[in-house]
Design brief:
Layout lengths: L1 H20 L7 H24 L1
């Protein structure tokens, strides 16, 4: 349960960070991929962890 909460918090923080980077990244769509990459990393880690059991 703790990993889920950490994943949610870090995804939200990534979204906030991405919204600040929208003005610097070209095209701005790249800023929206930051929270998706964080969330995808957590999903991939859980899938790998489940396969290792």
């Amino acid at each position: 349960m703790g990993r889920i909460i950490i994943a949610i918090i870090l995804t939200i923080l990534g979204g906030i960070f991405g919204s600040f980077l929208e003005t610097f990244l070209e095209p701005p769509v790249f800023a929206n991929t930051i929270p998706l990459a964080i969330m995808g990393g957590f999903i991939l880690a859980e899938v790998r962890r489940k396969n290792d059991k």
